[in-house]
Amino acid sequence: MIAIIDYDAGNLRSVEKALSYIGETPLITRDREALLLADKVILPGVGAFGDAMEKLDGYQLVPVISEIVKRETPFLGICLGMQVLFERSDEAPGVKGLSLLKGSIRRIPKAPGLKIPHMGWNSLEYAMPGRLFKGMEKPPYVYFVHSYYLEAEEACVTATASYGVTIHASVEKGNLFGCQFHPEKSGQAGLAMLKNFVLL
Q: Is 182 a catalytic residue?
């Protein structure tokens, strides 16, 4: 069973729809036992870092997520859901992230010709083999919507993108996976990534 963590994030339904399209029957829940029983867990997210951490804490999901990770259940963070896996964000000074991975979230710097938020399709470059990209010989085009980007420890970065700066666009460490882009909105390539995650 694939569980989608419900903490009032904006893109829960689009992730649910994409998973249904590839033949899964995901459960959107914040119930502790249901999340701990899941075979795979996804943390989507659209919004602000501080608000996300406040809701995760308010719904008592922080210890649940820690337990899921300790059990080595495959766990995928998408967009803001990936950002909160890290330690801190320029968007919310003083707010601690889940700190499951080492790195910081930075604001995309202003530059001539660059619109912020970064919204649209960008190509990826592979940094190292990632299991989400299994079967994809060429790095895909994927869909981004964000104003902040990840600076992670290089050891966990599987793909990057360029938008004025080098964006750490996908990460993987053990059972933890993250995408700054939205696989659920990235066409067939994105569906293939979700399928790869489901088949782990």
A: yes
At 101, which CATH number? 3.40.50.880
Which of 16, 79, 91, 146 is catalytic? The answer is: 79
Q: What is the pLDDT of residues 115-145, one digit of tens each?
A: 899 999 999 999 998 999 999 989 999 999 9
Q: How far apart are CA 95 and CA 53, in angstroms?
A: 8
* Structural tokens at position 47: 């919004």
How far apart are the C-alpha atoms of 42 and 24, rounded to whole Å?
13
168 counts as catalytic: no
Q: What angle do CA 72, 54, 193 make, to 5 degrees?
A: 40
Domain count, the chain: 1
Contact between 161 and 154 (Cβ < 8 Å): no
Write down the pTM of the prediction: 0.96
Q: Which of 16, 91, 172, 184 is catalytic?
A: 184
